[in-house]
Structure formats: C-alpha cells, structure tokens
Write a structure and sequence with these properties.
Layout lengths: L2 H17 L14 E5 L15 H10 L4 E3 L5 E3 L2 E6 L5 E6 L12 H12 L17 H5 L10 E5 L2 E5 L7 H4 L10 H7 L15 E7 L3 E6 L13 E5 L4 H10 L4 E2 L7 H7 L4 E14 L10 H9 L3 H9 L4 E2 L25 H14 L9 E7 L2 H16 L3 E7 L1 H9 L5 E7 L6 H4 L17 H11 L4 H17 L3 E13 L3 E2 L15 E2 L4
C-alpha cells in the first residue's frame, strides 16, 4: 500500500482534532452529571483502616460513611446512625442504625462496626490511626495484645443497635466518628478476599458512591451507589479523581475546563488566579498547621533541645507567609491553630515568639555554639519533603535561614507518597508536613505527640509528663478545665521544641463556579454527595 494512503487517515484525524473546540475530558453519558476532580496525589490505598493521607480521605469519604458524616459546612450529622443516647457519666453511647445497605445490597449491621473496630486494632492491619480507637474501652490493651478482641468497648445489642463504651468521657465523639478510621468495612467481603477487597470489582462501600475503576497514574472513577439510603438526593452520577501534584498544570486544566475542581493551587499565584479566573479561587482559614519534624531516633544532634530550639528560632516565618506564600497563611508559634473548639482563647507559644527575627538569629547561633557547633564544626542537616511548588518555596527559604546561622542544609524532594513512607520508616532527618485536624478539638493535634501514638509521631517525642497531662485532660469532664490542662501540655511540648511550627494553613481550592454546593469551612471537608454541576446557560 502506498505510504500516502497509510498516513492519510492519520492526517485527517489530526486535522479533525485540531479543529475541535473545548477541553479534553472524558465524555459524560447523556442525562448524567459528571465531575472531574483534581485531588493532588495518587492514593496508596482505599482501605479506610489503612489510609494515611488527606487526599485518600477525599475519595474514601465519598465511597463510605461512618456513624456520622460531614455536613456541607464540615460539621457532624447523622449518617449510618439515625440517633444516639449517652449515659449520664458520658462513657456509654448507644447508636441506633438506619436501614442501610452495602453497595452490593447486603444490610449494614452493628456487627460490621464491631468487626471493623477490632480489625483496625490488629497489628497486622498496620493502621497508622489505630491510636484513635484507643478511646474505646480496652482499645490500647487490645492493640498491644494484652486483652482479647472481645474486651473492646464495642458490642452489637442487635442488628441495628451498637453500644460503644469509652475509656473516658468524649463529648467530641460525633466529630471523631466522621473520621475514616471509624468507618465500617464489609466483613462479608474482607474475610473472603483479604487485602484484595479494595480492588475494583471487589470493593464494597457504605456511602453515596461505589468504585468503578482505578487507572494508576490516571484517575479513580466512582459512580452513584443505588443502595445508598439517600441516593435520590445525590446529584453527581460519576466522579473521576485525578492525581494533580503539579498545581500549575492543574490550574491550566481548570482554566481549560478539563477539571472542575482542584484541591490546591500554588499560593503565590492567588492574585493572578483572581485576575484571570475570577470566582474560581476558594480560600478559607483551616484547622491545620504546617510544621517540621525532627528524627530524634536516627539523628543524635536532634536529641539536644538546644539544637531543636536553635533551628526553630532561626526560621523567618513572616517572610514565608507574607513574601513567599501570600495566600493568607499566618506565622505559627504554636501547634494548635486558632479557632480550634474546646480550647483556650490565647494558647501557649514558643519561648522566642516575641523576639525580633534578628534577636532570634543571635539566639540560634548561641544555642548551636553551646551544643558544640560552629564555623569549625558546622551542624549538617538534610530536609526531606514532598515535591509540591509551595513546599519547594518553603524549604529553600528555610535552607537560607539555617545557613545564615551556620547550618549546612541539603534538600531532598520526593513524590508525596514516597516522602511520607520515608517519614513513617524514620528514613529522614528533618521532614516537612502539615497536620489537618481529624476532628475539631485540640486533642487531634496534641495526641500526635503522645508516646504511644506510633508512626505519625514522626519525631518520636516522648515525655511522661506530657502523656500524664493528656491523661489528666481525658479524665476531666469540665470543658474549660480540660482546655487549661491541654494548654499546659502544649506549653511543655513547645518549651522542649518537639517540632517546628511554621504557619497555620489556609485551605486553597479551585472550583469552577458552575459547581454548586461547595461550602468553604474550617475543617476543609467537601463531600461530593452535596455537590452538583449547573447546566450551561
């Protein structure tokens, strides 16, 4: 066949493609409503009890619900539980389940919750969030193998009645139960398929959507779950979640109409985005803190509190927030963000918070000298981070700050999942991360540094006095007294510079104005069951 005849169809196809207007996005079936969702990173798992990252929670929280779930404004509302009662002492909670089914049509029962809470505590589940379930009676003992699973404070009183018994009163429990670690998993599937239950074709979910496909590196596709009890009120028929680690590229895809939502944008582009895409950028104060963690297990220098304080004092936080990021972030001299519920109004801060930056640099040099470091023996540090544009700006500024006080600093950037895997394995010296509240209470931040928390206590901070204060707060039923005790715990941790708080995070998203139902909120939870896409005018 002549060459021209071989290439003519290709030329024609390319010409046709070049003439077509509009964005490149998958077709949406006639009569259906579809959402293209940029979600920052590729999930490592869709197992609620093995998940670790907020980007995984976006997908898992659309596929599943717990006893409670997030309202459009991020507050807790009933989900699989229609209602509940609490004993006078606050230790026993009785939940009455609604008539609900898994996405394969099998009824969801109280036994599914009992099975799931025991499962997350099994060492072989390797849940990074097992410590949250320590709130249930004997949870820590079951996790440590010191008590049988049957001793856990969770039991089915009937197919649709679940009783939870707590170690201590927890008025924030409805907030906590929104978290994916308290989601039920389908026992009838997990026991049959083991770890393979999370694969497309096997996955069975409890929420408004069901898993259709997962093309690694491309997208995860879900569609409306017909067995969801409120399916008639769910607008979106299909959602595709795309990994979008390059926020500038994601911004272009939003502008082109290829994506409807993206869960972030490069902070210092906010003014430009507002100019070129008015109405798309959504910013809101967040219950989240950006911070640096020290590997005290692997780096001897970081066991010296003088070194930790020097490195923390040397960071120019206002420069990072006001000159580099410029999206409303606030310099942080504490770990618990302002606006956190059930806490003191003006919490503790680092010991150097009121010093000028120049005085903090002097302090840093003096502390390093006291610890034996100086021009003849400089401290050498490696910072390992994820590879987002904001983080790149951040760590270069910190590198310059530390080198200004005589610290030799190397930078290593990896894809986000790789970086956090390294943090969990303690394969880092200094790590950069953000902690987003799992529930609106100071304990979600402060419990991170408890000696029994495990992998997410990346710096392995351990102080019996700190643990004792958390235990004292847990036993205190009066809200203001509890807040004061928790503030003493934070003050102790900050005095020891267990970590380096950098700034209080601002939620950043790009949302096409045709997407309805998106409510900016401090928790930064946006469940897709509340969203819709308006028809073009």
């Amino acid at each position: 066949m002549p060459l021209l005849r071989l290439i003519a169809p290709l030329i024609a196809a390319l010409a046709l493609a070049a003439c077509q207007d509009g964005p490149s996005r998958p077709p949406c079936a006639a009569g259906k409503v579809c959402l293209e969702f940029g979600n920052n990173t590729e999930p490592a798992t869709l197992d609620p009890q093995q998940s670790n990252l907020i980007d995984e929670f976006q997908v898992i929280g659309d596929l599943n619900v717990g006893l409670t779930t997030d309202a459009p404004d991020g507050t807790p509302i009933p989900a699989l539980a229609e209602r509940w009662e609490t004993s006078v002492d606050g230790l026993t909670w009785t939940f009455h389940l609604r008539e609900a089914r898994w996405s394969d049509g099998v009824p969801i029962t109280a036994e599914d919750f009992v099975y799931s809470y025991r499962r997350i505590l099994k060492p072989e589940t390797a849940s990074i969030y097992a410590y949250l379930v320590f709130l249930l009676k004997n949870g820590a003992a079951v996790n440590a193998g010191e008590a049988p699973p049957e001793a856990l404070g969770a039991r089915a009183l009937g197919p649709r009645t679940l009783e939870l018994t707590l170690e201590n009163p927890a008025p924030y429990l409805p907030e906590l139960l929104k978290h994916l670690s308290f989601f039920p998993v389908p026992r009838h599937v997990v026991e049959r398929l083991g770890d393979q239950w999370v694969r497309p074709g096997n996955y069975v979910s409890s929420g408004p959507y069901q898993l259709v496909s997962w093309r690694l590196g491309e997208y995860i596709e879900v569609e409306k779950n017909p067995y969801f009890w409120d399916a008639g009120e769910v607008c979106l028929d299909t959602i595709r979640y795309y990994p979008t680690p390059d926020t500038v590229t994601a911004e272009r895809r939003i502008a082109a109409g290829e994506l409807d939502v993206n869960t972030g944008f490069q902070s210092n582009r906010l003014s430009k985005i507002n100019e070129t895409m008015p109405g798309y950028a959504r910013t809101h104060i967040s219950l989240a803190t950006s911070y640096l963690s020290f590997n005290t297990r692997g780096v001897a220098a970081f066991r010296d509190p003088r070194v930790r304080k020097a490195l923390s004092a040397a960071v120019d936080r206002p420069f990072i927030t006001d000159r580099l990021l410029r999206a409303g972030q606030v310099p942080a001299y504490a770990f618990v963000p302002p606006g956190t519920a059930n806490y003191v109004e003006n919490g503790p801060r680092t010991s150097f918070a009121d010093l000028s930056f120049e005085d903090r640099q002097v302090l840093a040099r003096d502390l390093l000298a006291q610890a034996g470091y100086g021009p003849g023996r400089p401290l050498e540090v490696e910072i390992k981070t994820g590879n987002t544009p904001d983080t790149s700006l951040l760590i270069q500024a910190i590198q310059a700050d530390w080198e200004a006080v005589g610290v030799r600093t190397r930078l290593v950037q990896n894809e986000g999942q790789i970086a956090f895997a390294a943090y969990r394995m303690r394969d880092f010296q200094v790590g950069a991360m953000s902690w987003y509240a799992d529930y609106n209470d100071p304990l979600t931040f402060l419990e991170l540094l408890h000696s029994q928390t495990g992998a997410q206590n990346y710096g392995d901070y351990a102080n019996p006095a700190y643990d004792a204060l958390l235990a004292q707060a847990a036993a205190e039923p009066e809200v203001e007294a509890r807040a004061a005790i928790l503030a003493r715990a934070e003050a102790l941790m900050l005095q020891e510079d267990a970590l380096i708080p950098l700034f209080f995070v601002v939620n950043k998203a790009l949302v096409n104005p045709k997407v309805t139902g998106w409510v900016d909120n401090i928790a930064n939870f946006h469940r897709s069951r509340w969203l819709c896409v308006a028809a073009p005018q």
